[in-house]
Design brief:
Helix content is about 30%, strand content about 15%. The protein has a 6-stranded mixed β-sheet, with helices on both faces. By secondary structure, it is of the alpha/beta class.
Length: about 700
């Protein structure tokens, strides 16, 4: 923490009354006119664009961005979000608008581990791997905050600390129980990266308990790990209304005053909600000291100073960003690039790209073909332009003189589209479209109404936001079977739009091609059409494992990592973590490596200019993990072009955290793998190529 800012903040806090201090610990902080402190609302969101405050660029959802495996892309996206956030903040403040979602403190990114595909909020994360989550999380944090911690562009917040990934319906009372190994090597690893490498300004506590303690008042998490072990000097914010869960659902305290006392004592500085108003009573009753209040408020004032909002000269580079930067053409171009790089090709039996010379009519079918929600995802802003898959395909097809036929096919999750109709009321139309088309694109999956946060999702079986399983919901699988039968051997491309893994076994077995598009942002339809017609080669890689059936999963409430994610799952997957095809053929050779880095030669041996992602994994003798991702790099090569790629290995490549949270080298001879997939046998079969491997002695 800057000593200058700290001393200035401490001096300012000393001039406040107790009531004024406590007022600053609420997310809606009132102004203190006599001290020149304006009102400020701390609550803002920027998961994949400035959210919930009007027009902004709506980028692909976080899980989609993770499929790029590109920290460089994520940094550029976050920097752009920060630019729009600054432009909107200054314009709105000039109008006297200091409402919620209009500040410079963004409660993003979500760096929880997506350990179970049923979790509704998993699409807010960067997937199931701690290394990738840390790598991309740090890139996003640095993109939001800028290069100078003492002159923040905006303030990022790593959430939800910690051991948090469902079930959503139980989050206010749930106790996550884990062993020390999984705690440090899975659930805390990315937060360690965010604090030490990202220098994140804020950390948000989770709703649940971890090892018996409510996370927003956990001595272990907030005091012993975050503040003492990691020396975190930013501020901690509670999740929204999480403090009242202490006494209402977790039953670890008896009253609001006790709950506030527990949270503040253990280092929670600001309350998303109103309960911290009881902090004054806690001081007056001797449960808290005023010095403890001073510590919390000082941290908050320092953040506002780092943002240039209090008592320091403004940073002209940030304050001069014009409103014209919001949703501008330059940002739209980056949005489209991001969408293109996040589409994952899972199967291609020679039907893609679609041949415009031989195809005259394209059938577009499915509940997600024209579903705007499936572009937006949750925590979204409002785009000035949305292009669904149907609209993107129509625009591209019409440009080439092709006809597009469309049928919704079925409802996303109900058994009929029209309430008064009989079940499967669009099946006949879907068959007609298939029969009258030369190629068919079937858009299936989910949207944020059925997977999301407890308070946002509204259409699931229990409306908690979690999925019941990984199979296609509603009548979608039956629709696919109907279309495949009616297509009678014509090319059928299945496009899955979802924020999580789906067991699309029928598609894998019988469709000509399968694409995972996730929630691709407001211009997702354009990106998808460019991939379908071969203007862009797909290059995304799965940041999560696609299982074959719900029966492959462990109990949702079990936080033990055994048999979960690619690092521990011992069954056969449908599509493995790290898998994704391109339209070209790449070769890899010349692996050279030591314990810190590796180099390889990558050649585009195909006929299409394309991007490919190199992944580096290790397998450590005597460790629980089957494989662990520890490095990644990307190339973009013309046909015949070759390049040498150097990849730095992560700190856990040949080390693991011990029970105290200290990294310990694992001595011995281990295996390092470098290729375009993880080293499992399923990936080798699907990709048609095995990674290179080398022994490394540590």
């Amino acid at each position: 923490m800057s000593s200058t800012f700290y001393e200035k903040a401490k001096d300012l806090v000393s001039k406040m009354t107790l009531q004024e201090k406590v007022s600053q610990m609420l997310h809606k902080s009132p102004g203190i006119e006599r001290l020149g402190i304006p009102a400020y609302n701390w609550w803002n969101e920027a998961l994949h664009g400035v959210a919930r405050a009007g027009t902004a660029t709506v980028f692909p959802q976080s899980i989609a961005l993770a499929a790029s495996f590109s920290p460089g892309l994520i940094h550029r996206v976050a920097d752009t979000i920060s630019t729009e956030g600054r432009a909107k903040y200054h314009a709105q403040s000039s109008e006297g608008d200091r409402d919620i979602y209009k500040g410079l403190t963004f409660w993003s990114p979500n760096i929880n581990i997506f350990r179970d595909p049923r979790w509704g909020r998993g699409h807010e994360t960067y997937g199931e791997d701690p290394f990738l989550t840390g790598l991309l999380g740090v890139a996003f944090i640095k993109g939001l905050q800028g290069a100078d911690r003492e002159s923040l562009k905006t303030a990022a917040c790593a959430k939800h600390f910690a051991v948090h990934s469902g079930p959503e319906g139980q989050r206010h009372r749930f106790n996550a129980v884990i062993g020390e190994y999984d705690l440090w090597n899975t659930y805390l690893s990315a937060f360690d990266d965010a604090v030490h490498e990202g220098e994140v300004e804020a950390v948000m506590g989770a709703y649940n308990r971890t090892l018996g303690e409510p996370c927003c008042g956990s001595k272990l998490l907030l005091t012993e790990i975050l503040r003492t072990k990691w020396h975190f000097d930013g501020h901690v914010v509670s999740d929204c209304w999480a403090i009242k869960d202490f006494h209402e659902h977790h039953m670890v305290t008896q009253s609001p005053i006790e709950s506030v006392t527990l949270a503040v004592k253990n280092g929670c500085d600001i309350n998303c909600g109103v309960l911290f108003a009881f902090a004054q009573d806690a001081v007056e009753q001797g449960l808290l000291t005023e010095a403890q209040i001073d510590t919390a408020v000082t941290r908050l004032i320092v953040t506002r100073m780092r943002l240039g909002l209090l008592g320091v000269p403004e940073n002209k580079a940030w304050t001069s960003i014009p409103y014209s930067k919001v949703d501008c053409p330059e940002h739209a171009a980056l949005n489209l690039e991001a969408a293109e790089k996040t589409i994952v090709l899972l199967k291609n039996a020679g039907v893609l790209p679609l041949n415009r010379k031989t195809i005259k009519t394209i059938g577009v079918i499915g509940p997600n073909a024209d579903n705007r929600l499936a572009l937006e995802a949750n925590y979204s802003g409002t785009a000035s332009r949305y292009v669904t898959p149907l609209e993107g395909i129509k625009a591209a097809a019409e440009e080439a003189g092709l006809r597009v036929l469309y049928s919704e096919g079925c409802h996303l999750y109900k058994d009929k589209v029209s309430n008064l109709s009989e079940a499967d009321d669009r099946f006949s139309e879907a068959r007609i479209v298939a029969k009258n088309s030369d190629a068919i694109v079937v858009c299936l999956g989910l949207d944020p109404s059925v997977e999301g946060e407890e308070s946002d999702a509204y259409a699931g079986a229990d409306a908690s936001g979690d999925k019941q399983g990984v199979e296609l919901i509603g009548r979608q699988n039956e629709l696919l079977k109907t279309v495949l039968e009616a297509a009678a051997g014509k090319p059928v491309v299945v496009v899955l739009l979802s924020g999580s893994a789906l067991a699309a076994v029928e598609a894998d077995e019988k469709a000509g091609a399968v694409i995972q598009a996730f929630y691709p942002g407001s211009l997702g339809g354009i990106a998808l059409a460019k991939v379908l017609f071969g203007q862009v080669s797909p290059s995304g890689k799965l940041p999560v494992t696609f299982y074959r059936a719900t029966s492959d999963l462990s109990a949702f409430t079990d936080y033990n990592m055994e048999n979960r994610t690619y690092r521990y799952f011992k069954g056969e997957t449908l599509y493995p973590f790290g898998f994704g095809l391109t339209y070209s053929t790449f070769t890899i050779s010349g692996l050279e490596a030591d314990a810190q880095s590796c180099t390889v030669k990558v050649k585009n041996a195909g006929s299409v200019k394309a991007r490919e992602v190199v992944q580096v994994y290790t397998r450590l003798e005597g460790q629980k993990e089957l494989f662990s991702l520890c490095g990644t790099g990307e190339v973009f090569l013309a046909p015949g072009e070759e390049t040498k790629l150097a990849i730095k290995l992560g700190k856990t490549a040949f080390a693991r955290y011990d029970k105290k949270g200290d990294l310990q080298k694992i001595k011995g001879t281990h295996r390092l793998y470098a290729g375009f997939t993880q080293p499992d046998s399923r990936s080798a079969v699907l990709y048609g190529q095995k990674p290179l491997e080398k022994e490394i002695t540590v």
